[in-house]
Specification:
Radius of gyration: 19 Å
CATH architecture of the largest domain: Alpha-Beta Barrel
CATH class of the largest domain: Alpha Beta
Number of strands: 8
Shape: globular
Oligomer: single chain
Helix content: 40-55%
Distance between the termini: 60 Å
CATH topology of the largest domain: TIM Barrel
Largest sheet: 8 strands, parallel, barrel
Length: about 350
């Protein structure tokens, strides 16, 4: 087990995960303005792109206002000290998408994989390394597998050449102990830096991020105003403030982050990021956070309580890419209602 680091690198996800919260409608100007603020705020890296990553602008996930190339260019022109990062989900984003982003000045690729499917990212991790990028293996939905099994996946990612292993609590479902167990399990088998990505559906976005840092995580995600899928990510202003109080160096200017959050992010917020009964149900049932808005919309359209839909999604153990099951569940519930009404 590693001790807490004296310094931690903050990666802001406002312009990628936060894209879910604005229905992927960040404009080129939004991206430039927010990246300029993040540069001033001193974060290590800014992740930019469609909420589902490179190549994610499709009907199933929602079309982005800007192309991947335009988003990369809009960020790159103002990022000097802050590095440019992008997410790539193999099977959605392609090798050519990654080559394009690298050509536009990408510094970091985060190859996002379900927590049990590292083999799906082998070629993408290797390509990231070949392109000279810092290459992250970003394990999603980490509550869905045991710490020991996750560690074995991390070991394979290390063998593929990954530079950093990320624990992503994509549902905001992990408890602090669950986070500790996963960090420690990976540390026991892999000598690579560990990063953490949290969601706030159960109110643990900041707390779980800090827990991982206390266990030795060297990288920590957060977003301005907590903007992200579900009811958001860990609030990066709060994370930076807590780490500063703990004596952990981040290089962040907390007040500069507050300023860009208030001036450039808050005006873009489409829905409240407060913890709601729906977000709690989502986190409690371990559902991928991007299902949040789609389920709320289906709830209103079909007159079915969101909790009922979330509960069924949880029983099915859905993962990202299975959003079509939301509508299937709604029809099944309506059919069941009709059958019961005839009795």
């Amino acid at each position: 087990m590693s001790e807490m680091k004296s310094s931690v690198r903050l990666i802001d996800t406002t312009l990628r995960d936060g894209s879910h919260a604005v229905f992927h409608k960040y404009t080129a100007q939004n991206i430039t303005d927010i990246c300029a603020g993040l540069e001033k705020g001193g974060v290590y890296a800014a992740e930019v792109g469609h909420g589902a990553g490179l190549g994610g602008s499709i009907l199933e996930y929602g079309f982005a206002t800007e192309s991947d190339r335009t988003m990369m260019q809009s960020a790159r022109k103002v990022l000097k000290n802050t590095k440019l990062a992008a997410l790539l989900v193999p099977g959605l984003g392609t090798m050519d998408d990654l080559r394009m982003a690298a050509g536009e000045g990408l510094d970091i690729v985060r190859v996002a994989l379900h927590c049990t499917e590292v083999t799906a990212g082998e070629q993408h991790i290797m390509l990231g390394k070949k392109l000279g990028l810092t290459t992250v293996c970003f394990f999603m939905m980490c509550h869905m597998t045991s710490p020991e099994a996750l560690a074995e996946q991390a070991k394979m990612a290390s063998e593929y050449g990954a530079d950093i292993i990320y624990i992503a609590d994509s549902s905001g479902a992990l408890t602090p102990q669950g986070m500790r167990d996963r960090v420690h399990a990976i540390q026991a088998v892999v000598d690579l830096p560990i990063g953490v990505h949290t969601h706030n559906n159960l109110g643990l976005g900041v707390g779980n991020a800090i827990t991982a840092v206390e266990c030795g995580a060297a990288y920590c995600d957060g977003s301005l105003e907590g903007q992200g899928a579900g009811c958001g990510n860990g609030n990066i202003q709060a994370i930076a403030a807590v780490l500063d109080k703990m004596g952990v160096k981040t290089g962040a200017d907390i007040y500069a982050l507050m300023d860009v959050a208030e001036q450039s992010v808050r005006p873009t917020i489409h829905h409240s990021l407060e913890i709601t009964n729906e977000s709690i149900t989502l986190g409690y049932n371990g559902i991928y956070s991007s299902f949040y808005q789609h389920t709320k919309e289906a709830s209103e359209r079909y007159g079915i309580p969101a909790r009922e839909i979330f509960t069924e999604l949880g029983k099915r153990k859905v993962i990202g890419g299975q959003e079509d099951q939301i509508i299937d569940i709604c029809y099944e519930i309506l059919d069941k209602r009709k059958a019961e009404a005839k009795k």
